[in-house]
Write a structure and sequence with these properties.
The structure is a single chain. The chain is mostly helical. The protein has one domain (10-434): Amino acid/polyamine transporter I (Up-down Bundle), CATH 1.20.1740. Helix content is 76%, strand content 0%. It has helices at residues 10-21, 25-37, 40-67, 74-82, 84-114, 122-142, 144-172, 191-206, 211-214, 222-251, 254-258, 263-272, 274-298, 300-308, 327-342, 347-375, 390-409, 411-441. Helix 2 (25-37) runs antiparallel to helix 8 (191-206), helix 6 packs across helix 13 and helix 16 packs across helix 18. It is globular and about 70 Å long.
Length: 442
Amino acid sequence: MAGFRRSLTLFDMTMIAIGGSIGSGIFLTPATIARDVGSPWLIVAVWVLGGLITLAGALTFSEAAALLPEAGGEYVYLTRAYGGLVGFLFGWAYFVVVNAGGLGALSVAFATYLGFFIPLGPAASKAVAIVSLLVLSGLNVVGVKAGAMFSNVFTVLKLLGLAGLVGVGLALGSSGTTDFSLTLAGAPSGASSALALGMVGVLWSYGGWQHATYASAEVRNPQRTLPLAMILGTAAVTAIYLLANLAYMFMLTPAQMAASPRVAADAVRTVLGPVGGSLISLAIVISTFGVIGIYTLTAPRIYYAMAADGVFFRRVAGIHPRFGTPAFSIMLQSVWAAVLVLFWGTFENLISYVVFTDWIFFALAGASVIVLRRKMPDAARPYRVPGYPWVPLFFVGTSAWFVAMTLISKPAQAWAGLGFLGLGVPAYYYWKRTSTEERHER
């Protein structure tokens, strides 16, 4: 039987951790964050807090990744710590809501910004979004190394684009554009609620580093490579995002950021004129196309692991005999994402229930490190999270706080996410019973 090939290097995995995080978020969400929190210092604070949460998550996940370097990453940790139902609900949510929804949003964003250069009507825009999904899925079917090379190239290109944005903002903008005096002027009332609302966009923008764990079975020396890649990746993304937001505030005030539907383009336009909009649109096209490629590469390994455990479509557990990839899993995911593109909602509503659902499992996966230390006390741990148990507890606590505040602040999207999870319970027991009956028949 064909199996996975360990061909991914530290550079490949670091580029996946960075590239999986940097998509359209840093170009779009600073406007909603400025609207939610108002004060320049609170804007900086939510991005710093998001970076600390993300780094704590990477440090925590690294222990589980080194302990269980298997295809599916987070799914494996949740299954080992809490049992099959919790692991399945994570994979179910990822397939139905989180990754498919993210792929749909990214492909629509890609088509929208491509329309800046090539005029596209509504039907043509959806067609371009779907074709981009299918093309990148085909590339990842051909081989994990081909997909990783694509990820590397586009991640480097997007980093160059962001370096250009930061350089333009800091060199040609002005530190006097925004009042950086130590006040909370512009901050809305209800700081805790405002902070939670601001964190929706922040955590959407930071999310994606965990994709490095999903391809664990294809990594060379995973016990060393996975922790190092996630730590390097999250530290780099935090620095990039803080510099990008500082550059924005050198070109626009927080009030101007809040009023802008295209904050990156409007910011660069203030110092470069109309050419600024073109440059930012090109950067977003490159960034979104690159992250679509990463998501089509990594997440299908979750569905593969579920199917191998007998709780998903059996064919999804197949490995292509020539290419050594979960080909059917990759294509199934992209077809479902394409269906979502055809029946899409708004970007803001989408990210609210995607991020809410995702962070429920982030909290559980962070806590799984503590659970696994008790369940598997004698297992070899090539990497141990520093500051244990405080670093995992910080990650779990802030994740739980964010989930609770989202449930209060955006109940419609939060309950929609919980509804999708609820649908997964009967699905799990159906597949579990079917799998048991098939084993008995053999």
